[in-house]
## 1
Amino acid sequence: MRKALAFLLVAGLLTACTDEPDPGQPVGPAEPGTLRVLAGSELADMRPVLEEAAKATGVTVKFSFTGTLEGAEALASGSADGAYDAVWFSSNRYPAAIPEAAKRLGNQVKIMSSPVVLGLSSSAAQRLGFAGRPVGWAEIAEKAGQKAFSYGMTDPSASNSGFSALVGVASALAGAGNAVDANQVAAVTPKLTEFFSAQALSSGSSGWLSEAFEKRAQDPAGKIDGLINYESVLLSMNAGGKLPEPLSIVYPSDGVVTADYPLTLLTGANDDARGAHQRLTDHLRTHDVQRRIAETTHRRPVVPGVELGARFTQKDLLELPFPATRDAVDALLSAYFNKIRRPSRTLYVVDTSGSMAGDRIEALRTALVGLTGADASLTGRFRGFRNREEVTIMPFDTTPREPRTFVVPEQDPRAVLAEIKSFAEGLNANGGTAIYDSLDRAYTVLAPVLAKDPDRFHSIVLMTDGENANGRDFAQFQTGFTGVPAQVRQVPVFTVLFGEGSGDELSKVADMTGGKVFDARNTKLTDVFKEIRGYQ
């Protein structure tokens, strides 16, 4: 069970009929009438439907949430065996391409669907001339290359929506009429580079991406024109009433990749789980429940005879082919991170105070070293430091220490990654804890390089195991934040709770900077650092 948890970067739990348990705990042993499901985190919005289903069928669903690659890795490694009865991802296409994962996939029942499309603010759609007419991915890519608009998208190694978007765009731009293969990736890379040059926001989850977009929509300095996401997410955002103007949904005329959400029994599930799976899927595919799913989640019904509601303005969609082999998908992911997308500039502000001595400083060393290529797992391969990335590590204790910057080259990054590894292994713990002096220093380091080279994804990671004890306090930092250059204030700070770190203050730091809090108190720091990579 402990091994299974190591793969869960988003360790959340959801019970269909009872209050949510501690998200740091496993879903527990097999129980009659309970289906333990490893799922994509976006399925949290199915809770009302599953609560009703539990009353009708006697089947309670216990979710443990994970990302695309984590789920495939858990299946392939066997760590999901015995820990879960079923998996429920937006698609089984990627795990089905890995023989060791595919052999564990049993009965698959499609429950609902949602295409990955482009949502643009109404004014942006009008400005681009996209409103009211067919638009293909090639035209979207041309406008993106001209920087005529900006958009956000989830990390394709962390979220199914970003993964589907990358595959869909690549297949459409390849123009071959069949699934893009490993050999075609190099040929389509220039077009993809043009397309992704307009990406202004990355995220490890569809939920955080939509929340960040809504916040930025209220701020002219940080406003983004659109999102590539599930149709269901975009429709939910329009229905939520938090946007200053609605999103206009663009359904590319040359095709989309659609999530079909198969609730999939694992081959090792026992007879009780098999019966529960049958009862639950039969119930979820009834006409009334299909309509209820569409109303609740804005996903499309998949059962014949259930009409699409008026919200689904585009009824018939062309489905793009999906790569049939893991080699093709892996080649596409590698090209995306190392050649195609805008490079990152990442600044790690890490606590090396005396309280970090022993296991804690060793955990920090291991987490940083894992990002240099030492982590050979499937997730480790795509969450490490990437070619063209600029990485700065600034330890702090009683005062901020001298930052060290590493520039990972576009070709043969091994020597620089070895330097980062050596630096991380040399971190030692002593002294006090100057959190806010160190964060201020991070802004001082970042401001001139951001002004000189703004065309990157920028982020700060702040990790501490204690409360502030030296230098300025949070109130003083908060007051001084208004004096930080506007461009630098837009850089999200991802805070990491570790040990006795102040959750209240770190949450406020994340909120005021547009970042996110990550909890490493009950999860391995290595896994948390990998999870953060989806946002950088």
## 2
Amino acid sequence: MNQTKDRAVKIVTAAQMTALEQASEARGVSTDQLMENAGLAVAQVAREMMGGAAAGARVVALIGPGNNGADGLVAARHLRRWGAEVTACLLTRRPEPDPKLGLARQYGVSVIDFAGHAGSPDLEPLLKHGKLVIDAVLGTGRARPLDGVVKHASQLLSGCRIAGSRPAVLALDLPTGVNADTGMVDPACFSADVTVALAYPKRGLVTMPGAAHTGSLRVVDIGLPEGVEDGADLALELLTPEWVASRLPPRPLDSHKGTFGHALVVAGSRNFVGAAFLASQGAIRAGAGLVTLATPQSVYPMAATKLTEVIHLPLPEDEDGRVHPDGAETLREAGGRYSALLVGCGLGFSPGAAEFVERLLLDGPDLTQPVIIDADGLNNLAQHAEWWRRLGRPAVVTPHPGEMATLTGSATSELQEDRISTARHWAGRWNVVVVLKGAYTVVSDPQGLARIAPFANPGLASGGTGDVLSGIIVALLAQGLSNMDAVCCGVYLHGLAGESVRRTMGDTGAIATDLIQALPETIDRVRHVR
């Protein structure tokens, strides 16, 4: 399978993967050849995990009954060929005849049959003293609870890692016990250090809680032929640095500030001055040529002392320091000079703020620029019945789960059960791009194309990080990206900057300002990834 680098990586369900393998057979590439390619690719990743050399290393391959086990036997054969001491532990019955098992034995792989012997004392020392364990037990075809020898082996491996023996674990396609489609996890499931997804990552690998057991996700080519995706409805994708690099707006040498657009940030109130600062700084650091901050009059002096690069537009305010509804007229009159609009960060929630949002965004033809609505912009918007019918402009909404519950009237837990379906449904219903924030943020356009950012970072669970994300997105919109591309690039850059902060500072105590400082270097790194 040859995927161009400017395409996001497709994410598939178990049924879709089966259909793709059948399409491969129809195009002349057999399942056996796919197994050989997959096993070799897994063995190569295993060798990398052991420092680039396999000779003398103790490797334990846990082998299951189906194609996943066959892939593991191919990997075991190659590692033995490269000099590793490989033991294949059969946890279930294998089919007869079993050519992959026969070849593994011919190359010197030691084979121990544990099927039916859950209490065997020999398995635990093997796991404890192995340098690497390859989990090739259950792939996409198994969704039942773990039991018997498989459950026992999973519990032993978890125990070894908790006790500090900690052999490295490579999961082949899926960690055993993770549901390929839902991401639900068996109680006996262990966590892998690396999961090698064959051809495509499976949906369960990027859906919590399964994603928490995946470790580092590697996607490898297994030789699916050209055209295998023809006719397949693969509308779920994983964002990659190559894809983002291909979408980032260029920075020509003869450019000037007008080249990169003018972002209008409508944010802040007396109690939430920081939100205005963070959103504006996010927009500046993400490359907008000009940024104007429209904020209540009493907030303006405080914001101006911290934001020297921003143009300031004071707005009338109410007695509580929130923007007055009449401020909408000020913005409508000045609207033509801006390339993109951000509304909501720190506006506060009140009847007056809700009226301001209504007068600014709903029913009027004056502002036609793309708009991103976040935070209190969403909370105030939710006060207006069927607001989406009155919006009448290209829009992006960026709710976290609590804000999504406010917008939809649904329970947060219900929305979180299937985040991908949630984002898709409401993007189609509202005819906007939806960004459902959280671990593995989901982005969906109104047509149902959904993309997932490969980041889960507790360091981002602090106030203000969402304001920074909104600032990044409005900057990319101002530079001319489409709503979907701006959102996907912004979400990815925000997550990657968070990973950079976590590497240098850890995941406790990092603040939104740290993200802003990391943005320029992050963008430059992605821009040069190709």
